[in-house]
Each structure stands twice: as C-alpha cells, then as structure tokens.
Amino acid sequence: MDKASTLFLDTPVGSGFSYARDPNGYNVGDISSSLQVVTFLKKWFNDHPRYLSNHFYVGGSSYAGKVIPIIAQYISEGIEERKQPIINLKGYMVGNPITDLKVDSSYRVPYAHGVGIISDQLYEAAVANCNGDYVNPTNEMCSNVLNAIDNLLSEVDDGNILDDKCAGRLTPKPTDGVSGSRTLLGEHSRLSELPAQPSINCYSYCFYLSDIWMNDKTTRDALKIRMGTIGVWVRCNEDVFPYAKDVPSSIEYHFNLTTRGYRALVFSGDHDLTVPFLSTQELIRSLNFTIVDDWRAWHLGGQAAGFTIMYDNNLTFATLKGGGHVAIGYRPEQGFAMGQRWLDNKPL
C-alpha cells in the first residue's frame, strides 16, 4: 500500500476546483462525465507513460460509487479495442455506493426498522400498504405511513444514525426538493455560501474546516489553482451544473466488469441511513454469483472491524463496523487495513 500512487480527480466538471470555459461544458451526466474521466486518464497516461505498467484501480464513494463501474467499463472496452494508451486496469472499489436510487431509497425503511427508529406497527403498515415501494406512494394509506416514517427519520443523522444532528452535515435527503418525489438527491446538498460552524464534537466539523483550508490562498497556490477560475470553494456544490442522472442503475456495469475478470470491492458503513448496507447487499445478491467465502467477521487489532462475504468472479462485499456515509471517513484505520489487504489480494 505504501507503494501505491493516488490520483484525486474533481468530477464532474464544476465540482471542487474544476471548471469549464464554456457554460455548456457544465451540462453533463453519468455517461458524459464518465467519458470525460476516461479522456483525462488517457491524457494523463500519455504524459506519464512510466506508470502504464502499474496495476490500476478506480474507486469512489456515495454518488461516485454509481459512476465508478461506468468509468471502469469504458476503460475495459478501450483495452479490448486496443486503444492507446492501454491502461492496466485490474479492478475497482466502491464505498457506500448509490447504485439504484429507487432501491437505495426504499431500503431506508427496513433499515430504520431494524435499528429501532420506527416501530413494528409502523413498519408492518408500510409493508401492508406500500407494496414494497417506499419511494412513490400510490395510495393515501401508504403516503400517510411514509410521512410518519419521514418524521421519525428526521430525528436522526442520515450520515450516521449514532451522530448528533449538526449544522454542515451536507448529506443526501430523501426528497429532491424540486419535483417532490421521494428520491435521493445524490451526493450533494445545495450550497451558495460557507456552511454554519458546527460544534467541535460534530463529525461535520471536519467539513467546516475543509472549507476554510480550501479557501486559503496558500492552499490554492500549492495546488496551482488558476486565479479567477473558482470563487468560493464549497465542499458540495450542485448549483453550478445541471447534472443528468441518466443511468438509473449501475448494477449491469458491476455484472459486466466482474464477469470479465476484474476484481471488485464493495463496502458499506453499517450505520449509514443514506445508502443502507441492506440495499447494497441486495443489489449484489441480484447478480446471482456463487458464495466462495461465507459471511464472517474480519478483524483488526484482535477486534471485529466489520463483516464480509466473497462471491465468485472476485467480488467482495464488506461492512465497516460503526461506519457511516462514507465509511472510510468514520473508520480510517479499518478502511486503510481493508484496502491494503484487498489490493494485496489477501483475505480481509
């Protein structure tokens, strides 16, 4: 792991310090932004050919977890077509990944029941009246039940149900705020200015600090950010581009990649209400792969760090105990150990 090189990329255009010279350049979506990443990688490897022989992995969390398999598939297709430069893709990893917005949202209800946020009676009413769809109610009884559930969910932090609710959380909400439909926003909440300062005991305090650090001139100079391109840097900025979620589900991309021989690590924080591990686990099971190493604990320092299961086609699913959205931010030591073992092709 200490011999790995890491590329951090601001994507889609408009996020972080990235920008477009033409306003039309911000009009991107799942497909177009993924193709832009592949274009960037080809140019980067052309400029740095000494890295072409290195094993290459792509990874991301939350909404990035949805587009990572798309990016990886485009890279794999380039390899098959012998398009230069040939990237030595070996696999990909996604954490707390949004995979299918409807499925991810619906699993908030059974997860909330399982951890004691909603009662047996309310959960049973949802099961009886919503026909398994906890996103788009089709009758008044279901709508009433889901409203009651939403009120209870609002009492806890989506990112980690054990955390206090704090200012500056910036995690997806169960409604999109535009159409009124019950869907996940994706990764971002709207933000036009720096967030309010949370208590130092809040997890979101690190987000508050990141805004200060990234807007410091010394930081910008060190990163060689071109002057005049970006005003105030904000951690989550959805206002600048009309992003199109034009891939409803990335599950077929997971299937295509893993059956082509690429390794995959999918992991979840087990206290994440935004994208519950139940949803990710169900989507993995829909691939119908055979289990080769059944559900068990994986350990760090003599303690269970989470639980894991491995399927054929080199697909590993793991949880990080106590992790939220996203898991490696809450459990960095465990996340590092998990990634190191997986990259070394060792059992978790």
From TrEMBL:
Coiled coil: none annotated. One of its GO terms (biological process) is secondary metabolic process. SUPFAM superfamilies: alpha/beta-Hydrolases. Pfam families: Peptidase_S10. The keyword Translocase does not apply. Keywords: Glycoprotein, Signal. It comes from the Eukaryota. One of its GO terms (molecular function) is acyltransferase activity, transferring groups other than amino-acyl groups. Belongs to the peptidase S10 family. This is Serine carboxypeptidase-like 18. The lineage of its organism: Eukaryota, Viridiplantae, Streptophyta, Embryophyta, Tracheophyta.
